[in-house]
Amino acid sequence: MPLCSHCKQKWKYFQTLKYFGRTFMYCPYCKELNVQTEISRRLERLISLFVLIPVFLLFIVFDVPQMVAVGAGVAFLVGFYLAYPLILDVGKRKMN
Ligand SMILES: [Zn+2]
């Protein structure tokens, strides 16, 4: 679970789930702006690849029924969504 880069409070699982798909998020405790770290973003991309590849393989290589492949895809996506708070890491916004 991410730790606020300002007040160092650990965010709760369901609070973090709300930020799914965002790179900017406000701490639920101190309301300061946090950004998703580059490492966390890379990890997220890597995991989504691991989600897409098996679904793609199911479709192309193994010629499974469409419903099964779609079901597997949905199951992977739900798993990814539920794992999101564990992957997310936030830091302070870098000023360039
Ligand atoms: Zn905070």
Description:
The chain has helices at residues 13-17, 38-60, 66-87; strands at residues 24-26, 33-36, 90-91. It is elongated, with a radius of gyration of 16 Å. The protein has one domain. The model has no long low-confidence stretch (mean pLDDT 89). It is mainly alpha-helical and 96 residues long. Helices cover 52% and strands 9% of the residues. It is built from 3 helices and 3 strands. Strand 1 (24-26) and strand 2 (33-36) form a beta hairpin. Strands 1-2-3 form a 3-stranded antiparallel sheet. Residues 4, 6-7, 9, 27, 29-30, 32 line the site of zinc ion.
Could you list some keywords that capture this structure?
96 residues, mainly alpha, three-stranded antiparallel sheet, 3 helices, 52% helix, binds zinc ion
Quick gist of this model?
By secondary structure, the chain is mostly helical.
Sequence-ordered SSE layout with sheet pairings:
Blueprint: H1 13-17, E1 24-26, E2 33-36, H2 38-60, H3 66-87, E3 90-91
Antiparallel strand pairs: 1-2, 2-3
Helix pairs in contact: 2-3
The chain binds zinc ion.
Zinc ion is lined by residues 4, 6-7, 9, 27, 29-30, 32.
Sequence of strands across the biggest β-sheet: 1-2-3
Helix content: 40-55%
Average of per-residue pLDDT values? 89
The proportion of strand residues reads 5-15%
Low-pLDDT stretches: none
